[in-house]
Design goal:
Layout: E1 3-11, H1 17-27, E2 31-36, E3 42-47, H2 50-62, E4 68-76, E5 87-89
Parallel strand pairs: 2-5
Antiparallel strand pairs: 1-3, 1-4, 2-3
Amino acid sequence: MPTRRYLIQGKVQGVFFRASTQQKANEYCICGWVRNLSTGDVEVEASATEPRLEAFEAWLRRGPESARVDELSARDVDELEKPAGGFEIR
């Protein structure tokens, strides 16, 4: 199953981005995690089928209503970095 790490930049902290991301990941049956970075960005690691990751990424590009996503970058991660199961806020 593919796993991707996303970096989301913009107005993404203090706008319920992590909680909304967890809720959306659970809707799409995605495993992984989300966390705030000290830079003001949000980092997400997600593991699921390709169609689910594509739908999730489309949502990450918008984020919750109160967020403003200026940039999203994604990269595949190797097997050793894959999340074990569930989706957590770190």
